[in-house]
Amino acid sequence: MNTTPGLVCAHHHLYSSLARGMPSPPYTAKGFTEILETVWWRLDQALDLEILHWSAKLGALEALEQGTTAIIDHHESPTAIEGSLSVIAEACAEVGVRVNCAYGVTDRHGPEGAKRGLVENERYLKNGGHGMVGVHAAFTCSEETLESAAQLATEFEVGVHIHVAEGKVDAGAAERLKHLTEENWLIIHGVYLEDDHELSGTIVHNPRSNMNNGVGYANPVRFKNKIALGTDGIGANMLEEFRLAYARHRENDVSATPEISWEWLSAGWDLFPEAIDDKVTWNYGHIDPWHLAYTTGTRPVEIEIGDEVVWKDGKSTRVDESEVRAKSAEAARKLHQRL
Fold first, then answer.
1. How far apart are alpha carbons 238 and 246 in whole angstroms?
2. Handedness of CA 282, 232, 11, 222 (dihedral sign)
3. Is the pLDDT of residue 200 over 80?
4. What CATH number has the domain spanning 3-338?
């Protein structure tokens, strides 16, 4: 067998697709909070809707070329909030990739900024958008904002998509969230969660991002929650993320087997069941955890999404890859100039 359902990225930041090559931060960050302040919080403030369109479109195209047909995206663009989730959804639809959108509400820009984020989530969901209610992280939100986000999610019968205990600065998040969480929440990272944290929902493990930010190893096998895999914005190559999740797990416990990391990858289909009906045909004949854990270069030959072939012979059937990359490069230059 060399076919699978479409792979799912359970946590992405499509707005970061154009970050590659961005100017160096004003100083070298010495910890997680400084990384946020000098890189990501500068980047999200420089976004506009046109840049966001090309960032999402490029990210969706790069997801497709790795066999990922569904993305659960977490977005923030504090100077271009209104309509941003629709821009992301439409860009992904043009490529043919499925997407679940959420705007990351935060009080970093004051109560008015938090309100605008809540309104964008509400607008998108009310208009029939496929999504969740996003929250940046507990440590950048007031109790009122956290409760408002949870209430909005309940109203629309969706979960909350939130970073939790990614760094030490957010280590107390569980105490603030445990009375709010539901099984349909996405708890992202969880590096500094206690083993018995009392949070409901799926924990999304992002091994490459955690290593890149130097925040530590989440060791997700210690949790009772369901575990899924995301990239936290570093592309959407889910087979590579699976391999890295396994390698990191085995580094921590030499008795670890790739079946565990494959279960984490497979949990994406529970979160985004539509992807189960997608069909990815791979260039490698052994689609099983033990083979894939040690086989790089596995790429899709053909991809069907909703009975439509959207990838064939190494290219998209829906969009001109050269045009997408050229327009994305132009948008990246504009973004980088602002930085």
1. 12
2. positive
3. yes
4. 3.20.20.140
The Cα 41–Cα 28 span in angstroms is 15
CB contact at 8 A, 73 and 12: yes
Burial of 320 (0-12, 13-18, 19+ CB in 10 A): exposed
Q: What is the CA radius of gyration of the chain?
A: 19
- Give the Cα separation of 252 and 332 in Å (integer): 38
**pTM of the prediction?**
0.97
Packing angle of the helix pair 110-126, 143-156 (nearest 10 deg)? 10
36, 91, 114 from 105: Cα distances, Å: 16, 22, 5
206-230 pLDDT per residue, tens: 999 999 999 999 999 999 999 999 9
The predicted-structure confidence for 152-188, as pLDDT tens digits, reads as follows 999 999 999 999 999 999 999 999 999 999 999 999 9
- DSSP H helices in the chain: 32-35, 41-45, 49-64, 84-95, 110-126, 143-156, 173-177, 207-213, 238-252, 258-266, 268-271, 289-292, 321-338
Whether residue 219 contacts residue 252, with contact meaning beta carbons closer than 8 Å, is answered with yes
SS3 label, residue 316: strand
Residues contacting 14, CB < 8 A, separation 6+: 55, 56, 59, 60, 71, 73, 75, 88, 92, 99, 233
Residues, the chain: 339
**Burial of 282 from C-beta contacts in 10 A (0-12 / 13-18 / 19+):** buried
Query: Cβ–Cβ contacts within 10 Å for residue 124, how many?
Result: 24
